Amino acid sequence: GNSVTQMEGPVTLSEEAFLTINCTYTATGYPSLFWYVQYPGEGLQLLLKATKADDKGSNKGFEATYRKETTSFHLEKGSVQVSDSAVYFCALTLNQAGTALIFGKGTTLSVSS
Amino acid sequence: DGGITQSPKYLFRKEGQNVTLSCEQNLNHDAMYWYRQDPGQGLRLIYYSQIVNDFQKGDIAEGYSVSREKKESFPLTVTSAQKNPTAFYLCASSRSGQGANGYTFGSGTRLTVV
User: Fold this and answer.
1) I need a surface site. Which of A26, A70, A99, B86 has the fewest CB within 10 A?
2) Which residue spans within chain B are E strands per DSSP?
């Protein structure tokens, strides 16, 4: 079946450290890939996306590259801030009518000053 | 500004009661979705609707019901048949059923059974 696997958290970093959150997927066909962020007590916000192999999504200093050969979409940021503390979700959609976004279990990031 | 409004933000329900969660969007999106979020389990799909008067079950539809009488509205009823309803519920919408542009989410409703 179709699924998304994220590294388990929590991830604890000091301010200005480098961040990587791993995400791999299993999908029939050619999915679009997404990273969402959830701040405490809120809904999810779209952080970035990529719709085909080798595409790089980027936003607010975060980046992720769609790697078809390794079925991965790892999230990276060169220098994290305290305000980046949140839960991060990797997700995919199969771009077909009648399907919905499939989410990973989420990774909690905690950044201290 | 366009967006999705979920209400109420917090909801308390006695065991054995049905309760309805509201979700309204003014984005002119065709598709709408309900997810349930539990700690450590990510988001699980309850129901989704791609057009008015049509909806499909997701992965965990048992104990829930929905309606889609208007494009803007997709209410979720948590029935007494839902064995463990305490959770955070998120509503989302997308321009089309394919979701290739991603979803817009509401701010959620936290339901607690007392």
Assistant:
1) A70
2) 4-7, 10-13, 19-25, 31-38, 42-51, 54-57, 64-66, 76-78, 87-94, 104-105, 109-113
